[in-house]
Amino acid sequence: MLPEAKPFIKWAGGKRQLLEELTKGLPEFGNYHEPFLGGGALFFRLEAMGQIKAAYLSDSNEELINAYGAIKNHVFELIEELSSSKYANDADAYYKMRALKPITKVERAARSIYLNKTAFNGLYRVNSKGGFNVPFGRYENPKILDEENLLLVNRALQKDALYKGDFTVVLNNAKAGDLVYFDPPYAPVSKTANFTGYTKDCFGEKDQERLLQAYKELDARGCHVLLSNSYTAFTAELYVEFGQEIVHASRMINCKGDRRGKVKELIVRNWEPKIAQRKLVEEVIAAGRVDVF
Fold first, then answer.
1. How many domains does the chain fold into?
2. 179, 83: one domain
3. pLDDT score of 196
4. pTM of the model
5. Residue 57 sits in the same domain as residue 72
6. End-to-end CA distance of the chain, in Å?
7. What average pLDDT does range 83-93 have in this prediction?
8. Among 41, 64, 177, 235, which is least packed by CB within 10 angstroms?
9. Which of 285, 50, 42 is nearest to 180 (CA)?
């Protein structure tokens, strides 16, 4: 196994703690596709395991994809940029950097990484105009420049294609035998739990339904399709015809400490027996909620 790159940013709903569940029982596959790239934890694990032949990686967040591209193509310039004293861990430097709109790919990537490492709770949230609006985090010693990991990420990305766009871009590239992993902004488990502010366009129920249609199209095409989402009556019903597994994951992104902890998440695999799990879904719908542990 190769040295494993880690996500170079903190990302709400990151999958590092679920990697064992996500990688177990994977079939042999051709190319790899991840259209909600985020922190890329599963991609980095599979790459370290030597299972990636070629990958098609995409996200609707333009600044995130720019950062991946800068690491892939300009990693040494990015390391040099992040070494500058202007990326200091103090409120004045933070708000000055947050107000900037750099032009070059490397400066944009450095700003994104810096804000992510020093923003409150590691949030990436934008307003309706696409402006980053998270306050300063006041961390004691955040690792703004992780040179060793940036070089590992650079190596991992060399045979891969990066795209900015809607998740449906996967339909242009995925072929029979490929593996597609969907990790969308999660469906809220309650009316007050909705957090989809990674881009100025939120990801709502209609988008979740569009995602199901893409899942079904890829399934019919002969692709291996893996999906993770929050476990709710809505998501369980959406994917009732596919193999479902309920897992527990810690979620630490909530600003209210008493709302952090273990939550139920849903993993859906289309290569498992397609037995309609009516009893499971009916119990969830009858309860009308998802318990948080």
1. 2
2. no
3. 44
4. 0.87
5. no
6. 35
7. 96
8. 177
9. 42
